[in-house]
Amino acid sequence: MPRIYCIRLYQHTALDDPSHIFVVLVLSIVSDLFSFVFLLQESSRRQALSGIAAAGAALVPAAANAAAGESPRFSVFGLIGDGGAYSEGGAYGSDQSTKVYSPYSVYGEADEKSLYKEGASEYIARKKAVVAETKVRLSKLPAYVAKAKWFEVTDELSRFMYETRASINYLATTPEQKKAAKAFYVAIEEVALNARLKRGDACAAAITDAVAKLDAMSF
Length: 219
Hints:
The radius of gyration is 43 Å and the shape is elongated. Strands 1-2 form a two-stranded antiparallel ribbon. Mean pLDDT is about 75; it is low at about 1-15 and about 55-65. The longest helix has about 50 residues, at about 20-65. The chain has eight helices and two strands. Helix 1 runs antiparallel to helix 2 (about 20-65), helix 3 packs across helix 6 and helix 7 runs antiparallel to helix 8. It is mostly helical.
C-alpha cells in the first residue's frame, strides 16, 4: 500500500523541487521496510503452524498406546522410567523375565530346558559317525597317490573331512585324547603338503601314519 501511494505521489508531484524528491525516496524506503516486515511475519506464522502440526502428529502414537485412566509412561533405553513402556529395547536384559546369556543378548542362559544339550547321546553318535567316515576316506588316498592323482588327495582331505577336526575336538575330552588329536592333525597336514609337492613316497608314508594315529584314538 505505501508503494502505491509513492507511485501516485510521484505521478502528481513536480520533481523539480529537491524536497519533493527527498520525500519520494523516503516513502519508497519506508514502503520496502513494510514489505520486508510483512514477509517475515508470514514466514514466522507458517513455521509456527508447521511446528504445531508436527508436534500433534508425534503425539498421535503415544495417545494410541495409552490406556484409559492410566498415567503417562516412559522409558529411556529400558533403564529409566517404566520398564513396561515402549523403548529402544530393555538395556542389559532388564525387560526379560529370566537372566540372559549376555548383556547384549535376548536369549537366556543354557539350562535343562535348552533344546541343545552338550554331550547328549545324539550329538556324540553324530560326531563318531564323522570319525568313522573319515577312516573310509583315508583308505582311498593310497590309490590316488599310486596313480599320481594329487588333486584327488587334497580334495578328499577338504571335501568330507572338513568336519573331522570339529568332531574330534568335540569327542576329545581328556588330556591324552587331545594330545592324540593334535598328533593326528599334524599327520594330515603332512599328507596335504606332500600331495601338493607331488612327493609320492613321503605322501604315502604320511597317509599310513595318519591312519595309525586315528585308529589309536578311542572315544
